[in-house]
Amino acid sequence: MSDMNPAQPLSPAPKRRRPWGKIVLFVSLALNLLIVGLVVGTMMGGPRDRDRNPALRDLGFGPFVHALPRADKAALGSALKREAGSFEQNRAALRRNFVAFLGALRTEPFDAEEARRLIAEQQGRVSERQRLGQKLLLERLVQMDPQDRAAYANALDRLLKRRAPRR
């Protein structure tokens, strides 16, 4: 008994655990669930044509285009690009016009006539693109057989009912 030291405890004190392992596990699990949720949501959401072709969205008469079958949307987008230039070119021109308009707003003395001209130029560019889109859509509808036009009418009707405000 002489070799027992009363200053030392009989069993070693338990080591203090750090919460890092649990935190890392929780974060990893949360990230995995987020990724699985994104994948499942994308798969369940189906195709979103309106997001794939920004040129068609740019036409300004969305439901008329969105109700078209995918092949007709692709053909309409190709015809629009062929006749009006690329979506990026048109957006770049609109952006340049906005930058010029901002410059006109900040210039002193303010030149209201220059601001009016820039607004009219922007409106003309958008109106011309809408006229072209309308022409191409009507050409596409003329090419459809009666059954395809009826199916288009039904799709447009469903789309409009879905977007209608509820009472």
Task: Give a structural overview.
The chain is mainly α. It has a domain of 114 residues: Four Helix Bundle (Hemerythrin (Met), subunit A) (Up-down Bundle). It is built from 8 helices and no strands. α5 crosses α7 and α6 packs antiparallel against α7. The chain is flat and about 95 Å long. The chain starts with 19 loop residues before the first helix and ends with a helix. The relative contact order is 0.10. About 7% of the residues have low confidence.
Architecture (CATH level 2) name of the domain at 50-163: Up-down Bundle
Kindly identify the CATH topology of the domain at 50-163. Answer: Four Helix Bundle (Hemerythrin (Met), subunit A)
What class would the helix/strand composition place it in?
Answer: mainly alpha
What's the average pLDDT? 75
Order of helices and strands: HHHHHHHH
The helix content, as a percent range, equals: over 70%
Please identify the top-level CATH class of the domain at 50-163.
Answer: Mainly Alpha
- Separation, N- and C-terminal Cα atoms: 91 Å
- Please state roughly what percent of the residues sit in beta strands, choosing from under 5%, 5-15%, 15-25%, 25-35%, 35-45% or over 45%: under 5%
